[in-house]
Each structure stands twice: as C-alpha cells, then as structure tokens.
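Usage

Read records sequentially. Each one opens with the input sequence:
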Amino acid sequence: MKIELFDTTLRDGTQGEGVNLSIHDKLLITKKLDEFGIDIIEGGWPGSNPKDEEYFQKVKQLELQNAKICAFGSTARFPDQIETDNNLNKLVEAGTPYVSIFGKTWRFHSQKSLGLTDDQNEELIYKSVKYLKENGITVIFDAEHFFDGYKDDSKFALKMLKAAERGGAEVITLCDTNGGSLPHEIFNITTEVKKHINKPIGIHAHNDGELGVANSLSAIEAGAVHVQGTINGLGERCGNANLCSIIPNILLKLKKETKSEADLTHMTSLSHFVYEVMNMVPNSRSPFTGKSAFAHKGGIHVSSVLKDSRMYEHVSPEVVGNKQRVIVSDLSGQSNIRYKAKELGIELPDGKDFSKNFVQYLKSLEYEGFQFDGAEATFELLLRSDLNEFERFFNVTYAKINVLLDENEKEYSEAVLKVEVDGKVEHTASDGDGPVNALDNALRKALVTFYPEISNMHLVDYKVRVLGENDGTEAKVRVLVESSDGENVWSTVGVSENIIKASLSALTDSFNYKLFKTIKKEEAVSA
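and closes with the structure output:
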C-alpha cells in the first residue's frame, strides 16, 4: 500500500517553544503543504482557541489540489455525555472531512488523569469515535502514549484500539507520545498490533530520544501505512518526527510510494519556507534540506566528490531540491579551490602551483582568524586579486569614530572618513545608530558621488565573534557582514584586534564586491 502523509505542523508543531503563527501564516503554510503533496493537513484544535476555529472557516476558501483538512481534538470527557460534549461538537462544527482524536491507551493515564475504570475508558473511546463517524466524518484515532501503555499492559492497550476500530475509525495511529521508545520496540509492537487490528495502522513519533525519524521508518517497515510528523521536526519539547527526513527516506531508501506523489524536488524549499514564515533560523545541519547537508570541507573529500559525488553523498542533492557546496577553510586542499573557482566562473591556471600557493595563503589567513565558510564574497575578491582580475575601487585613507553620550544618556555615534578614488579624496562624515552604522553611512556617503550604483545597497546582518577569548580585551574579533542590493545577498569578513577596523575591512570588501559584480554585469551586457 502507498504511504499516507499526515502533517501536523500547524497543530503539534505550533506547540514548540518559540513557534507562533497567525491565521494568515497557517493558510500560507497550508497552501505550500498542499502543493508539495501532503495528503492530510491537521490544522489545529477548534475546541481550544478562537484562532483555530477561524482557521477552519477560512481554510474552506482555499482551492486545495491534494490535501484534505483535519481538525484535532480529544475523546469526550465522560462516557454518558457524548452528544453534549463541547469538544466533540466543536470538531463537528469545524466542518472538516477528517478529524483526529486522541484517547488514553495507557492505563496509568486513564486512571490517574481521567479517573476512569478500564470499561469506562473503553466506552469513552468507542462512543466518541462512533459519534463523529455518525456525523459523516472520517476519523483517525490517535492512541496516546500507546507504546508506553503497551509495554505496561498490552491487553489494556489493544482493548482500547479495538474500541476505536469498532467505533468506526479509519486509521489507528500508534503514538510514541513521550518519544522514549527504541526502533526495535516500535517495529516489534507495530508488527504485533497488526495481528489484532484490521484497520490501517499509523505512526506518530516524538523526538525526545532523537529517534523520531528512525521510529517512524521502523513502524512503516512493520506495516504502518500512515505517518504523522511536522516540517523541520518542530513540536513540543524536542519536537516531532521530521517529515523532511521521513519522506525522502520513504521514497528513496524504502522505495515506497506516497498517496499524493510528493514532489521531493521541493522538499528543501518547503523546509525553508516554513522556517521563514515562522521567523526562525533554518537548521543548517538538517539532513536532506540543510545548507550543510551536502557541504564538503576536507580536501580529500572534495577531491573524491569532484570525481564522483556518490563517494561522499548518500543521495544526489538535486533530488531533494538542495545543492552541493564546497567550503573553503584551513582544511582545504587544491580541489576545494578549483571547485570554488569553477562555481564562481573563474578560470585557474592549469599548473598546480597556483592552487597550492593560494591554499597556503588562505590557511595563513585562517590562522590569523579569518573564516570563509560564510564569507564567500571576500574569498572571491582574494582569488580574483591573486589572478590580477580585481583591483580595489577605493581606499580609506583616514577613519575616525566618535561615540558620545549626552546628558540624557542618549548615545551618539559619528564617523569621519577620507576615501580616495582615482587620486581624488572625498572627506565626509555621518552619524548613525552605533559606530558601525555610522561607519557604513559615512562610507556610502563618500562613495555614492563616484559610484551611484551603490545607492540600492544596504546592510542585512552584522555578526561579531571574539577569537581567543582568554585574551580579554586584547583578543581579536571576526566581523561578518551580510549585504544586499535587493536582488543578491553576499557576505564579507574582517579580522582585527580593533572591532572598528575589522568592521571597516568587512564593509569595504562588501562595497568592492558590489562594484565589481555591477561592472562585470555591465561588461557582459555590452559584449
């Protein structure tokens, strides 16, 4: 059978620390999940807050191509109050084709949390599922804490599953709610459950033991055909099983099909889109979709990758919409330099001497504190300069920074610069919100007279890293500057014991890079 993909980013994912979504955000993500090929999207809990109730009304206006919307809730609170239970009726009012409800399958929870006898808990599950089914809804039963419950008392846990099955649940999902089970336990228990339950089995794993993905795949290998998770593994505590890893493994490693033919080439863009909407920094080390997932740093590795990427990549990055990267660092060899040069469209001399000498030059810079992992613009300028393809467009011959505090303790920063361009000197000053901003403003003010093309350029990010922390105030600092012209984004680096000097170095590289790229582009157009 094909695997059904159930996404709970908008419900379970939003329970993660630091995750907040507006209704508009949830609708944007819903559309992306649908375009990607998710089968069922769990949008929230309509009985818990007004925002989720509004989402279920507005989502009906979307013209979805693949996905069905699912509302989430719990079984009724009391077995004799099913039809008047507010939670169940909110689920019915949501008007979704699917509903997922959770019920207690661990006696410990049933007794301690709800205060129910075994028979009462069984009746509660049966009647709750049956009530939703009678209202024309496809019910997915989430067996909460199932694996812990099964290990505690397998007869009780299975009895609760059978109650949901009798009530009319279409899918029985086994939940590793505390995320503490191991893959072999998941496999063995899922295998055993299939002997007793005739309905399709699902898996809902959490990542507290960092086994959410492994446990989900183990359940699928044992016969589960419905898998729940979140994009980027977001969720409460350590998160849910990460669909960005589960889906590629299902398709590429287990060689199984998904119901809606998920488009793997959009996996990376989907991951980054969700991070962006949530205003979160992407995890660069995420398998398959992270920036570092197919990044190579060691010279020997790069040499092999250039011959055949299969030597150090378990799948082709393009398959999941990612790309291969080679990082220039103190671990670099000649292969790294040649790879980066090719990537930048730079032709290197055929002999090995250039590459060898340039590698040594880079390593000496890294020994001083430079790092080019995230400053590829500075790297390109260094390489082109060594090849006599680049000369700086200007020189800063004088720089003075004033940082004042007035009587109201309001900070005032001013930068005074002398900038020389083709023998002409521009003497200017500018203030700013802090010394670096003042420096940036003054440099821009001095240069725009000579190079008006920099007017659309602005600072995006500024990071400072202290090197040799035991050296105290005498320690070097590394400044990383990220800039943009609205079309492209690039990063440059500067290193010095003086933070202002390091900042000025990174800023001047940034302006030089912009000017170099602009002129190269103009030359290409005129040619």
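Summary fields computed downstream for this record:
- The chain has four domains: 4-277, 295-360, 369-393+455-527, 394-450.
- The chain has a mean pLDDT of 89.
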